[in-house]
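Consider this pair:
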Amino acid sequence: MSNAIVIGSGVAGLAAAIRLAMKGYAVKVFEAADTPGGKLAEFTEGGYRFDMGPSLFTRPDLVEELFREANVDMAGRFSYLKLDEANRYFWEDGTRVTGWCDAQRFALELEQALGVPQEATNKHLKRASELLASTGRTFLEHSLHRPSELLQGGFLKALTSVRAGELFRSLDAMNRSVFGDNPKAVQLFDRFATYNGSDPYRTPGLMRMIPGLEHGQGAFYPVAGMYSITRALHLLAVDLGVRFHFNAPVERILLDDTRRRATGVRVNGAEHKAKVVVSNMDVVPTYRRLLPDVKAPERTLRQERSSSALVFYWGIQAGHAELGLHNILFSNDYKAEFDHLFSKLEVFDDPTVYINITSKYTPGDAPKGCANWFTMINAPRDVGQYDAATIALARKAILGKVRRTLGIDLEPLIQVERMLDPRSIAVRTSSHQGSLYGTSSNGPWAAFLRHPNDHPRIKGLHFCGGSVHPGGGIPLALLSARIATSPVPTMKTIEQTAHV
């Protein structure tokens, strides 16, 4: 049996380890932290439980796929609910919209709350679902760097199905062409650019497909919280024989004398040999720290990074029935907010605030009558601008937005508080500059410029996770693991070839 090594145990690393184990490899995972999950982590404090990272769950079929292919019953290991509503949207003038997952119901809601004709919303969401099923499926589920695979995946057909405006106009321009006389509707649909850390005023209109996830395929909630995804995949990997080494940061990816084949990794001065190495680490530190003697793809590494986040985890001594699982409090000036995010690289003084409250569905996540608020604003990548004063001003801005929009004086209700900023994201998860999604998608060809899932010159070296193709977020991370491991031969194939 040959060895395979995975660097990092984020959700993509866990999925890669599972897939390699299913191919017959003896798999080792080396993780710098003391627990698995990467960004998909959790903590408890003062009777409150918080998911630290991703909070929206779509495409549960990609988790189910791993259990099905491993021939392991998922029952009792992982379960989820299909949600009726994806988000609740709030503006300071009192306007409120429920983002129902059912497209027809959502269209009716937008007509009643914002005056948007149902026909316009239905047409927009239908196109989103069409793009997901055609272009999205091809671009996201196949390598863009393997010509034969692209042809098999229907690349030419998918590309020709894209309208010129969807490729060469911005998402905001596309949304204004549909909802131009309704700025709140435009802002609501512009927000989907943040799902991959991008700017709606620069990311291509093709990103209009993203609402097709929530309002076509549906939004879901893991019954025991988001960390239950990590827990389920980690235990599945262990059951398949994967060995995990925590508090074990990889120091170097080892290569043979020709530098054309990966041969293992070095950890704490010890060498671990392997035929296959998969890096789930952000691609920038992978090259800078683990492959310092290999010529790096500088053009790729210099691409504009995605946005980061500033998160306050607050234990709140109140329930607030008007809030749901996912809540959005919109900025009064969206254009200025994104200008600060990507041009000025400053935290905006009137940010859009996202509040995730899992205790709405898992009461044990907070003491009785209380709620666990995961309170996040989009923040610029870290280029040295963050300090205590910046964090204090951001906190004040969030509290002000909550007070003006919801009428809640939150400060006296905060019982527990912890904070995560771009600096700590970078340290905790090795995400370059604290960017959550690797590179941004602020350009029509951004998807084609992401780092491939295979090294073009080093055999046996593969990449998965949010910083490489197809991008960030749980579904894309799981897809990256599938793409990265797909060309790796099974041990049975290797043995048969050896006997020929």
In short: The mean pLDDT is 94. Residues 167 and 264 are 41 Å apart (CA to CA). Residues 118-141 form the longest helix (24 residues).
